[in-house]
Amino acid sequence: MKLVLAIIQEKDASTLQAALNEQKITSTQLPTKGGFLKAKNTTFMIGIDEERVQEVLDIIKESCQAREQYVTPPINLAGSISDTSYPVEVQVGGATVMVLPMDSFFRF
């Protein structure tokens, strides 16, 4: 058994959940928050047999595409104007995925 942890952008969560449900893969979702953009994310926890890990990774990759977005950095309260006061283009979306060994898995 493996534990797949996938941190994705909140707007991709329903697409990923539907794709997992279609393949009869159960998951638990946790609301999380990113550090750099302080954007809402969703973390999926998926307990899965080792032979189905690649299937899960493929579903995540297909459901959670990276995209470009403009963000405005926080205002500098010191009063100085800097290059960071203008919107900058950053890559958002996609997924950060960790696959961990799992000694046991119980469903009661």
Quick rundown:
The chain is an alpha+beta fold. The chain is built from 2 helices and 6 strands, in the order E-H-E-E-H-E-E-E. Strand 2 (28-33) and strand 3 (40-48) form a beta hairpin.
Give a written overview of the molecule.
This protein has 108 residues and is of the alpha+beta class. The chain has one domain: Alpha-Beta Plaits. It is 19% helix and 39% strand. The strands form two sheets. The protein has a four-stranded antiparallel sheet with strand order 2-3-1-6, with helices on one face. Strands 4-5 form a two-stranded antiparallel sheet. β2 and β3 form a beta hairpin. α1 packs antiparallel against α2.
SSE layout:
Elements: E1 2-9, H1 13-22, E2 28-33, E3 40-48, H2 53-63, E4 66-71, E5 88-93, E6 95-101
Antiparallel strand pairs: 1-3, 1-6, 2-3, 4-5
List the main descriptive attributes of the protein structure presented here.
19% helix; elongated; alpha+beta; Alpha-Beta Plaits; four-stranded antiparallel sheet; two-stranded antiparallel ribbon; 108 residues
CATH topology: Alpha-Beta Plaits
Number of domains: 1
- Count of helical stretches: 2
What global shape is seen?
elongated
Q: For the CA atoms, what is the radius of gyration?
A: 17 Å
Q: What is the β-strand count?
A: 6
User: Which percent band covers the strand fraction?
Assistant: 35-45%
CATH architecture: 2-Layer Sandwich
**Topology order in helix (H) and strand (E) letters:** EHEEHEEE
Major beta sheet summary:
4 strands, antiparallel
Order of adjacent strands in the largest pleated sheet:
2-3-1-6
Helicity range:
10-25%
User: How far apart lie the N and C ends?
Assistant: 17 Å
